[in-house]
């Protein structure tokens, strides 16, 4: 049966529109569902009490929020110097040879390693071998390894976008390479770098598998980062699989979605500023 | 400190940091292989047997390899047509104002934590599937496949969309000038030109699907069997590791690391192929 | 340049300060392992007025491994120590803290309308696995509750691989409560109105029958330490064994050691 091109065009367009709208619809439905069932649970009880355990899932998420904040802070303190330093190397210092190619491949491959493998690794090295036990520290170190390739990628791109003239100008004025890098290139690339950092925070918040096996499952308030804990995402998992408090799980999910939304908006705003800066001055 | 000294120190420091990622990758590979080696040695091919019952010394991961494969296939079957359609939609069909809304929506989907998808799957999908199949609690490869499809959708869509957009516009304009309809231009000119990128998108999406853990544990039932229908529960390689690692000792632990090795190698291979295709796109 | 050094140094100092502060604060007791013992341990931890006690789950084997490897101060288990565990780690010392029964639970509106089963019938159901009549739910490997179940009910038979495997008592209870034809096994302490415990061989599953020994599926709950307990750990365990501690045991639905 041979259809006329006009007919196939109409059918194709119909299917394509369906696909496009479906994708958006799926997102909206998920977000709306989580918010609709989760937001009613919000309240001072939910945010300021600790989880009580038990199948009815009493309590709230205060200790979980604190654990998550500690986790993210520690992760970023470890990750940022490492990531930016590596990116500086790759963008400014690395010669164009097979060795650098190898390192770049390493970064690419590391980006594809599944989270649970990082979890296995983190468990074997940080929890057991280095004897940190189930702790926020072990989780943070593992997360830093997992997010490293992403920070390197975004930072390197930000630095590569800085026009060559900036660098040449600095060197012409007598700056050493290090001075040029830190006082000219990095500040110019800063919005892009910060975007990358914020995206990594988003990635850290969304992570669960590698933290599940390195942070332990304790839901209490941490008093140091050698204590174990749960991040918000991990808590959703426990609530969903061990309690009837599915509404609280959805509420925690709502908190997560809102955080991701804020992070997305922040990065969008920053990249606009970044582009404006570059175009304005170039 | 003289700035020249600083410069020299910086050079060394930065080189060290630069190698760090590569070092981490090597460390991961070394550790996992080392911990998994005893299992390969003691169990040999029985590691790929069909029975997983650690307390009776059975460590066969065949059911989990199949479990992971089936779930991924279901996910791809759903996600590929949907993503491709969505990618074409965003790149070629959507009016600018719709695109302004749709593209960020897809990006947001990318950032949502996997446990949230698992949760919604648990709460919404499982009861529906339990009703339809008449059996059990709804934990099934179908539920896992659907959840995975939604998770993989944004990845495949955005990379595909980028490749379609990257095709030089004169390809399409040439086709239209010769009297083709828009769809004919897309189908016979744009898509073939964007093919490496689209294949890269699918491959990278597959890599992500195989690596997913927490959402899978929540909806797949964790039964170490060969799924006999889409309504059957199963267990993935990733789920196996996550659920048992905290209390595994001796050969059991080594078998889990060996599972990690299998997973690591599989995902590395898939992603490497994907990256090769990705580099081939007209960028 | 100096500005960067100042920033870097102050960050490192801040980090180190937090680390040191952390070392001081990390003096609490870490209890982990059996999810059967977990709610009990959490109540004890709350009532205890000494150092901070953190409680986590993971299953009995995780508790043993955790203590043996120094990750935990106390490993909670709901089964006896296994011979290969005592072989590999001869310094482990178990202390009985309570007794517990393993309840066979079904959904309150289960279509098969079962209220009593013999041990053989339970064994057959779990060996056969999931079907259209029953959705079989079991604990994963490494669970003390599962060990007890396998020893007292399954004997030599294996639990079918077609069962759904879940990692904690809470997860099993949630699944059974949500699925009308589900059957699973959980600690007696977890049983409440969400699920129904069937009687086994005619004996109702409750604390009295476990105490006098007529209920066939029961076990001791232990805290395992590396060597004899001492210091803060000893203090905490003594609290758990005290009259006040044992009263909490009864309140939670377990059986005290008196």
Key descriptive features of the protein:
heterotrimer, A: 282 residues, mainly alpha, MetI-like fold, 2 domains, two-stranded antiparallel ribbon, 11 helices, C: 258 residues, alpha/beta, D-Maltodextrin-Binding Protein, domain 2, 9-stranded mixed sheet, two-stranded parallel ribbon, 11 strands, 41% helix
Write up this protein:
The complex is a heterotrimer of chains A (282), B (283) and C (258). In chain A, strands 1-2 form a two-stranded antiparallel sheet. In chain A, a hairpin with a 4-residue loop joins strand 1 (51-53) and strand 2. By secondary structure, chain A is mainly α. Chain A is 77% helix and 2% strand. In chain A, 55% of the residues are buried. Chain A is globular. Chain A has two domains: 5-41; 44-278, MetI-like (MetI-like fold, Orthogonal Bundle). Chain A contains eleven helices and two strands. The model of chain A has no long low-confidence stretch (mean pLDDT 88). Chain B is globular, with a radius of gyration of 23 Å. The longest helix of chain B has 41 residues, at 3-43. With 283 residues, chain B is mainly α. Chain B contains ten helices and two strands, in the order H-E-E-H-H-H-H-H-H-H-H-H. Chain B has helices spanning 3-43, 62-93, 96-111, 114-133, 141-166, 169-177, 182-211, 214-220, 237-244, 250-280, and strands at 52-53, 58-59. In chain B, strands 1-2 form a two-stranded antiparallel sheet. In chain B, a hairpin with a 4-residue loop joins strand 1 (52-53) and strand 2 (58-59). Chain B has a single domain (47-282), classed as MetI-like fold. Chain C has 258 residues and is of the alpha/beta class. Chain C has helices spanning 2-25, 38-47, 60-68, 83-88, 119-128, 144-154, 169-178, 207-212, 231-241, 243-252; strands at 29-33, 53-58, 74-77, 92-106, 116-117, 135-139, 164-166, 182-187, 196-197, 199-200, 218-226. Chain C folds into two domains: 29-99 and 220-251, D-Maltodextrin-Binding Protein, domain 2, CATH 3.40.190.10; 100-212, Periplasmic binding protein-like II (D-Maltodextrin-Binding Protein, domain 2, 3-Layer(aba) Sandwich), CATH 3.40.190. Chain C is built from ten helices and eleven strands. The model of chain C has no long low-confidence stretch (mean pLDDT 85). In chain C, strands 1, 2, 3, 4, 6, 7, 8, 9 and 11 form a nine-stranded mixed sheet that branches. A two-stranded parallel sheet of chain C has the order 5-10. Chains in contact: A-B, A-C, B-C.
């Amino acid at each position: 049966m041979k259809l006329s091109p006009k007919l196939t065009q109409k059918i194709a367009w119909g299917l394509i529109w369906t696909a496009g709208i479906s994708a958006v619809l799926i997102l909206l439905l998920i977000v709306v569902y989580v918010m609709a069932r989760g937001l009613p649970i919000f309240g001072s009880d939910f945010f300021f009490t600790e989880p009580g355990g038990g199948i009815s899932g009493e309590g709230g998420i205060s200790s979980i929020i604190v654990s998550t904040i500690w986790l993210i802070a520690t992760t970023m303190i470890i990750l940022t110097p490492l990531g930016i330093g590596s990116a500086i190397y790759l963008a400014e210092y690395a010669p164009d040879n097979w060795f650098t190619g190898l390192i770049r491949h390493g970064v690419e491959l590391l980006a594809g390693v599944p989270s649970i493998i990082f979890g296995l690794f983190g468990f074997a090295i940080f929890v057991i071998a280095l004897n940190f036990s189930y702790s926020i520290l072990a989780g943070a170190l593992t997360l830093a390894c997992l997010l490293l390739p992403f920070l390197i990628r975004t930072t390197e791109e930000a630095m590569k976008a800085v026009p060559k003239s900036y660098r040449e100008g600095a060197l012409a004025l007598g700056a050493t390479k290090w001075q040029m890098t830190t006082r000219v290139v990095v500040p110019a690339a800063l919005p892009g770098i910060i975007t990358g950092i914020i995206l990594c925070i988003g990635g850290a918040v969304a992570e669960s598998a590698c933290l599940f096996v390195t942070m332990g499952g304790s839901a209490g308030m941490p008093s140091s980062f050698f204590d174990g804990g749960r991040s918000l995402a991990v808590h959703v998992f426990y609530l969903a699989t061990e309690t009837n408090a599915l509404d609280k799980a959805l509420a925690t999910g709502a908190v997560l979605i809102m955080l991701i939304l804020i992070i997305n908006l922040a990065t969008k705003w920053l990249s606009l500023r970044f582009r404006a800066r570059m175009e304005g001055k170039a | 400190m003289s700035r020249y000294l600083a410069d020299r120190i910086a050079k060394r420091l930065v080189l060290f940091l630069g190698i760090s990622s590569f070092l981490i990758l090597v460390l991961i590979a070394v550790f996992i292989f080392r911990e998994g080696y005893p299992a390969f040695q003691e169990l040999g091919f029985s590691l790929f047997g069909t029975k997983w019952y650690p307390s009776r010394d059975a460590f066969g991961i065949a059911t989990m390899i199949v479990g992971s494969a089936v779930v991924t296939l279901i996910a791809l079957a759903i996600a590929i047509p949907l993503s491709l359609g969505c990618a074409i939609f965003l790149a070629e069909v959507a009016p600018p104002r719709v695109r302004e809304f749709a593209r960020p929506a897809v990006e947001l989907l990318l950032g949502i934590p996997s446990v949230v998808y698992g949760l919604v799957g648990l709460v919404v999908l499982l009861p529906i599937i339990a009703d339809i199949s008449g059996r059990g609690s709804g934990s099934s490869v179908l539920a896992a496949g659907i959840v995975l499809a939604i998770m993989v959708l944004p990845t495949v869509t955005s990379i595909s969309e980028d490749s379609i957009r990257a095709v030089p516009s004169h390809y399409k304009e040439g086709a239209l000038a010769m009297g083709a309809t828009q769809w004919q231009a897309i189908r016979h000119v744009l898509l073939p030109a964007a093919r490496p990128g689209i294949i890269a998108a699918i491959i990278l999406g597959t890599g992500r699907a195989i690596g997913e853990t927490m959402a899978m544990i929540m909806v797949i039932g964790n039964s170490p069997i060969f799924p006999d229908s889409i309504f059957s529960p199963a267990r993935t390689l990733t789920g196996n590791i996550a659920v048992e690692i905290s209390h595994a000792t001796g050969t059991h632990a080594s078998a889990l690391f060996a599972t990690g090795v299998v997973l690591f190698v599989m995902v590395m291979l898939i992603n490497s192929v994907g990256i090769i295709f990705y580099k081939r796109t007209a960028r | 340049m100096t500005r960067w050094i100042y920033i870097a140094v102050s960050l490192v100092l801040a980090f180190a300060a937090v680390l040191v502060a952390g070392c001081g604060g990390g003096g609490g007791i870490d209890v982990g392992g059996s999810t059967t013992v977990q709610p009990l341990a959490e109540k004890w931890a709350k009532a205890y007025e000494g150092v901070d006690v953190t409680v986590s789950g993971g299953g009995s084997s995780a508790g043993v491994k955790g203590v043996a490897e120094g990750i935990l101060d106390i490993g909670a288990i709901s089964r006896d120590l296994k011979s290969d565990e005592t072989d590999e780690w001869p310094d482990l010392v178990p202390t009985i803290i309570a007794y517990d029964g393993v309840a066979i639970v079904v959904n309150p509106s289960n279509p098969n309308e079962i209220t009593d089963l013999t041990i053989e019938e339970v064994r057959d159901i779990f060996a056969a696995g999931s079907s259209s009549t029953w959705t079989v739910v079991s604990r994963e490997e490494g669970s003390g509750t599962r060990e007890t179940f396998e020893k007292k009910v399954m004997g030599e038979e294996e639990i079918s691989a077609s069962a759904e495997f879940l990692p904690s008592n809470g997860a099993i209870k949630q699944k059974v409560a949500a699925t009308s034809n589900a059957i699973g096994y959980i600690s007696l302490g977890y049983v409440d109105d969400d699920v129904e415990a069937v009687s086994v061989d005619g004996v109702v599953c409750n604390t009295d029958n476990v105490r006098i020994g007529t209920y066939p599926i029961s076990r001791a709950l232990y805290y395992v330490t590396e060597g004899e307990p001492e210091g803060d750990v000893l203090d905490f365990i003594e609290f758990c064994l005290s009259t006040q501690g044992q009263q909490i045991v009864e309140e939670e639905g377990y059986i005290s050691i008196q």
